[in-house]
Amino acid sequence: xxxxxxxxxxxxxxxxxxxxxxxxxxxxxxxxxxxxxxxxxxxxxxxxxxxxxxxxxxxxxxxxxxxxxxxxxxxxxxxxxxxxxxxxxxxxxxxxxxxxxxxxxxxxxxxxxxxxxxxxxxxxxxxxxxxxxxxxxxxxxxxxxxxxxxxxxxxxxxxxxxxxxxxxxxxxxxxxxxxxxxx
Length: 183
What we know:
- By secondary structure, this protein is an alpha/beta fold.
- It has helices at 15-22, 27-35, 50-63, 79-87, 100-105, 126-143, and strands spanning 40-43, 70-74, 91-94, 111-114, 148-151.
- Helix 2 packs across helix 3 (50-63).
- The termini are far apart.
- 27% of the residues are buried.
């Protein structure tokens, strides 16, 4: 098992280099993926963090010597993202998760990473936001009743703070901002 993490460069020269660094698994991630049994499905893989996280899961599995499918599911409105994931060994499935038939066609897997959600651009699309962030999680739980599901959601828990103040801390009272944060 190779558990080394690359040293950080002094300067990041490209988006590809940044994505490689962000998807470089820590020794703890390699151990976790080495201990995990079965395939992994990442729902909402084409969002802000999904591609990097799916790549890290694949790299950590490979480093741990575990052969597993890492499957990314998304609408893939950007076809280039699907191609990039495939180039890194991530299987992809194009699906609208709110379509029950599409959800039912997804393969079974013991491990689900739930990253789907309407997080940005919700203004004027409140009904879709509520469907994505409240109804869809229940649909996924019904589809995968025997799977372990990890839900990955917002960091928008605390209110806005001035940058000069150093940001929010855990002792701050929750004060989320916007429609997404209310769900």
